[in-house]
Design brief:
Chain A: GO terms for molecular function: transmembrane transporter activity. The complex is a heterodimer. By secondary structure, chain A is mainly α. Chain A is 80% helix and 0% strand. Chain A has 9 helices and no strands. Chain A is elongated. Chain B contains 10 helices and 13 strands. In chain B, the strands form 3 sheets. A 5-stranded mixed beta sheet of chain B has the order 5-1-6-13-7. In chain B, strands 10-9-11-8-12 form a 5-stranded mixed beta sheet. A 3-stranded antiparallel beta sheet of chain B has the order 2-3-4, with helices on one face. The chains are: A mainly alpha, B alpha/beta. Chains A and B meet through α8 of A and α1, α4, α5, β10 and α7 of B.
Chain lengths: 220, 268
């Protein structure tokens, strides 16, 4: 059985692929920043916040972590307009990704916070640091350093998950690939190429974040 | 298989050769779909399940519609048991190319790009696509689409025709399948929708408050049955079945049942 591969037919549409890569990276960047910040805030709420807040955030985390991403996305895009919130596909995608990442990030960051030795916190208090100062300067940096690899993995998962945003017409990478293969029917080649692009993206983003973490996020 | 080095043990080599033999046998058989169907007495036919009234899931969860009836009719004429394979607009041609199905009866329109990769029988049902919007939208021709958002199903003929005529400033939003396209339009995410007259008529019936109306024609595009490239025996046989059904009035009966009108003039 001979399969003739014609990568040229797919690569001829490189501007579409390039736009796709830009959207995938853009969606990931925005949702990673917002998602991780929200995750840290929620982790604080869940481990040190008032009881009511702990319950609310706990319910949120369970709700999001136990439903599929695509359902969350469709709920925001197709469901919310019924309640009067009409969002563009791109905004709906960013919100869905932030919501999804923040729930997982909450639990990952909380693990780091709880692993911070009690002695460090007590030392901070005995130095007359306020609870906020203690959390921001003493608890969070080593917590983030400890869970950074897990957090980076979760960001990569969300980036790969953004592939479904094409279903609601966001021109990200998988959307571009589907569009190209629906025009020239070179589906095998198209998906080989897109798999390779995702692999490179994931690898690069992972290396970049592992490099950037200690330098910019939880400086040593 | 290309890198058969001396390091490869004899046993792996034998296995690889056996695998090759199976593949070659598979390839030799591949051009004989009709024989396979006659022998196994089953035929796999791709049908839509998100495209009323051509193919949709009824209250009993079984697929029904014009294409489904047509699939059953063709299978019966071939004396084979039909195995219905639900496909989407975007994946029906890959299903045929990879031999996951023998025939595609799934509102498949004919165009030169598709003719390069699959073969077509004669037409079996009518179909036309157009741009639709609520009465309030002032759209009479393609130029009026400028600055407006239009929902369309990615990879469909609707998409190709719309892309051809739409001005550069029109915001074309391409969705994964017909359900998503229609849902997005109904949710108010786009101002207009480009789809088939039949799908639009279903929306009109179910959401009459929307005031949906026909704006302008994109393409008159009858449906053909798709056959894998080179399966000439099967194509010839299905052509005979369709020609006979067109003459006997069976096609008109199906069109009346599902589309509310006779088939009209269908091209070869």
């Amino acid at each position: 059985m001979t399969v003739e591969l014609d990568f040229g037919a797919v690569l001829a549409s490189w501007p579409l692929l390039l736009v796709g890569v830009a959207w995938t990276l853009g969606l990931t960047a925005v949702s990673a920043v917002l998602g991780v910040l929200t995750g840290i805030a929620f982790a604080w709420a869940r481990s040190e916040g008032p009881v009511l807040l702990q319950t609310v955030v706990g319910a949120y985390v369970e709700l999001i972590r136990n439903t599929p991403f695509i359902v969350q996305l469709f709920f925001i895009f197709f469901g919310l307009p019924a309640a009067g919130f009409r969002l563009s596909p791109e905004v709906a995608s960013v919100i869905a990704m932030v919501v999804n990442l923040s729930a997982y990030a909450t639990e990952i960051v909380r693990a780091g916070i709880e692993a911070t030795p009690r002695g460090q916190r007590e030392a901070a208090i005995s130095l007359a640091l306020s609870p906020t100062q203690t959390f921001v300067y003493v608890v969070t940096p080593p917590a983030l350093a400890r869970i950074w690899p897990a957090l980076v993995s979760q960001i990569i998962i969300v980036m790969l998950g953004s592939a479904v945003c094409g279903q609601i017409s966001v021109p990200e990478l998988t959307f571009a690939t589907s569009l190209i293969q629906s025009r020239n029917f070179r589906s095998f080649e198209a998906f080989i190429i897109v798999a390779a692009i995702y692999l490179v993206l994931a690898f690069t983003v992972r290396r970049l974040l592992r490099w950037a973490g200690p330098r910019f996020v939880f400086g040593r | 298989m290309y890198a058969m080095t001396s390091k490869t043990t004899r046993r792996t080599a034998v296995c690889a050769l056996a695998a090759c033999a199976v593949l070659i046998a598979g390839a030799a058989q591949a051009q004989n779909a009709l024989d396979d169907i006659t022998k196994s007495k089953t035929i796999k036919i791709a049908i839509p399940t998100d495209f009323p009234p051509y193919g949709f899931v009824g209250a009993d969860m079984a697929p029904q519609g014009l294409d489904v009836d047509m699939a059953k009719f063709v299978a019966a004429k071939l004396n084979a048991k039909v195995e219905l394979v639900p496909v989407t607009t975007a994946n029906r041609i890959p299903y045929l190319q990879t031999k996951k199905v023998d025939l595609v009866i799934s509102t498949l329109g004919k165009n030169p790009e598709r003719e390069k990769v699959v073969d077509f029988t004669i037409a079996y049902s009518p179909f036309f696509i157009a741009v639709f919007a609520p009465k309030a939208a002032a759209v009479k021709a393609a130029e009026d689409l400028a600055g407006k958002s239009i929902a369309v199903t990615r990879g469909s003929v609707d998409d190709q025709e719309l892309t051809k005529v739409a001005p550069a400033t029109a915001e074309i939003r391409r969705f994964e399948d017909n359900n998503a396209t229609i849902s997005a339009f109904l949710a108010g995410q786009t101002q207009l929708v480009a789809t088939s007259a039949q799908v639009a008529s279903t929306i009109m019936q179910k959401n009459s408050s929307l005031g949906l109306e026909y704006k302008f024609l994109l393409k008159d595009s009858p449906n053909f049955i798709g056959v894998a490239k080179g399966e000439d025996a099967l194509r010839t046989r299905v052509n005979e079945i369709v020609a006979e059904a067109r003459k006997s009035g069976e096609i008109d009966r199906l069109c009346k049942k599902w589309l509310g009108r006779e088939a009209g003039d269908l091209p070869i």
